Amino acid sequence: MMDNREFFVKVQRQITALIEGLKPDQVEQLAVGRASVVFLPPGGQIVVSGGEARTRLAAMGSRKEAIEYLAGMKVDELKSLARQLDVAFQSKDRKSDLQRKIVDATAGLREDADAIQSW
Description:
Layout: H1 4-20, H2 24-31, H3 50-59, H4 63-70, H5 75-84, H6 95-105, H7 107-117
Helix pairs in contact: 3-7, 4-6, 5-6
């Protein structure tokens, strides 16, 4: 059995490896509090509520910001979110296609409306 120090060192190494595997923009988002690290136990799944995601995406000021929000999601998670948001997609859609369709149906609508009104 590991003592407390060994346990702490092992956990710290795993966290360091996780952070080293992040992209520079992800580290920046984490540093400024726009992102967080979540513990996911073995066999667990991340479930994003369609309502929560719709609210967050609608509040974003640009497509770029919305794409960044969706960047960490896997294809299966994006498909689940698209279904919850009633966004049409094809089963063969790639991650980038799913992201674009979700963004166009949420944050993109607001950005387009703002552009039209300011014209």
